[in-house]
Design goal:
Blueprint lengths: L24 E7 L13 E2 L2 E2 H11 L5 E5 L2 H9 L4 E3 L7 H12 L7 E4 L9 H6 L11 E6 L13 E4 L6 E3 L2 E3 L10 E12 H9 L4 H6 L3 H6 L4 E5 L10 H13 L7
Parallel strand pairs: 1-4, 1-6, 4-5, 7-12
Antiparallel strand pairs: 2-3, 6-11, 7-11, 8-10, 8-11, 9-12
Length: 271
């Protein structure tokens, strides 16, 4: 699989748009200890720090705005702050990461200084910071409510229900509107070409507020895909096309692979 390749993963460099600098993003990383396949996953040590701290570091290296972990558990707050990171406690019973970051946003930024909220998953310790910056590019278009990432499917992924497909028509460009999301390979009514969806989102603040206030849609519940709620409500999602899928940690085997990859990761502090 492509996401087991050597890191760092490099997105297409020309998708970055200098106009995105006008945005005022904040990066929020939702995290909780509950995990069926890998208990206490955020606290698993990778390299010299817990995984959630490594994710915080990758997000900080993106250098687009403040980075804060939205934590469901005090142990996560302690792990992050003990190593110099920022974390805020949230309710433990949120149904999704989107709800968790929205609570954190209200706590951290009640004056609405930040107009974009980037949701970075807490199980991506090897995420290339360039990919986070790439997620801002679609928001240069004022018609875009939510931005995300996509990559070309690898052989066999189209038939894998564990790989979420984003359907779009890039037409040689690096940004396109998401027409549909699915776990299956069937062509959706709106057409398009399937891509590997990467679950990193950049929300306009108003779009996030609207999204978390919506009830789950029928399509969302059927496919167990939260992003379908946004499409069903008329929110526009655009995707930036990047070159590779970041390595995510879901199982003990993934954790050992992440530890091995971290040992080969270049030090960003070195010239």
């Amino acid at each position: 699989m492509r996401h087991n390749a050597a890191i760092p993963v490099t997105p297409r460099p020309h998708i970055r748009n200098p106009k995105a600098k006008a945005l005022k993003p904040i990066i929020l990383i939702p995290a909780r200890l509950a995990s069926t396949r890998l208990p206490d996953k955020p606290l698993a040590v990778i390299g010299d720090a817990p995984m959630i701290v490594q994710v915080w570091r990758r997000a900080t290296e993106a250098a687009i705005g403040p980075v804060v972990v939205a934590a469901a558990d005090a142990a996560i707050v302690d792990a992050v702050t003990r190593t110099g990171g920022r974390a805020v406690a949230t309710r433990p019973d949120h149904p999704s990461g989107s709800d968790r970051i929205f609570e954190a946003l209200q706590t951290l930024d009640p004056g609405a200084t930040h107009d974009v909220v980037v949701n970075v998953q807490g199980d991506l310790p090897l995420l290339d910071p360039h990919a986070i910056r790439a997620a801002l590019a679609p928001l240069v278009n004022p018609a875009c409510d939510i931005a995300t990432l996509a990559a070309v499917l690898e052989p066999g992924e189209i038939d894998s229900s564990s790989v979420v497909k984003l359907w779009a028509n890039f037409g040689g460009k690096t940004i396109a509107r998401a027409l549909a999301f699915s776990r299956g390979a069937a062509l959706p009514p709106d057409g398009g070409t399937p891509y590997h969806h990467i679950g990193l989102y950049a929300y306009r603040r108003a779009a996030l507020a609207r999204f978390v206030a919506l009830p789950p849609s029928a399509n969302e519940k059927r496919a167990n895909l939260e992003q379908l709620r946004a499409l069903d409500a008329g929110l526009r999602i655009d995707a930036a096309l990047v070159d590779a899928v970041p390595f995510g940690v879901d199982t003990p085997a993934d954790l050992e692979r992440a530890r091995a990859l971290m040992r080969t990761r270049p030090d960003p502090a070195r010239p």
